[in-house]
Automatic annotation (TrEMBL):
Domain of life from the UniProt record: Bacteria
NCBIfam families recorded: secE_bact
UniProt entry tagged with the keyword Ribonucleoprotein: no
Gene: secE
PANTHER family: PROTEIN TRANSLOCASE SUBUNIT SECE
GO molecular function: protein transmembrane transporter activity
Function: Essential subunit of the Sec protein translocation channel SecYEG. Clamps together the 2 halves of SecY. May contact the channel plug during translocation.
Organism taxonomic ancestry: Bacteria, Bacillati, Bacillota, Bacilli, Lactobacillales
This protein's record includes keyword Cell membrane: yes
Name the UniProt record assigns to this protein: Protein translocase subunit SecE
Record's keyword terms, sorted: Cell membrane, Membrane, Protein transport, Translocation, Transmembrane, Transmembrane helix, Transport
Any one GO BP annotation for this protein: protein transport by the Sec complex
Transmembrane segments: 27-51
Organism: Enterococcus pallens ATCC BAA-351
SUBUNIT field: Component of the Sec protein translocase complex. Heterotrimer consisting of SecY, SecE and SecG subunits. The heterotrimers can form oligomers, although 1 heterotrimer is thought to be able to translocate proteins. Interacts with the ribosome. Interacts with SecDF, and other proteins may be involved. Interacts with SecA.
One cellular-component annotation, GO: plasma membrane
Amino acid sequence: MKFLRSVREEMKLVTWPSRKQLRHDSLVVIETAILFAVMFFVMDTAIQLLINLVIR
């Protein structure tokens, strides 16, 4: 019970982000994930083409 009371008291001290800040941060995460996915796709394709040129 002491632990649960401590958790409740700590949760009162938490500063939650605003809806605007949460939306902004989520978009940054999504954009970064897409950027890395595209970057890895391009790198993988380039390496695959180079390997195919060396093998042939």
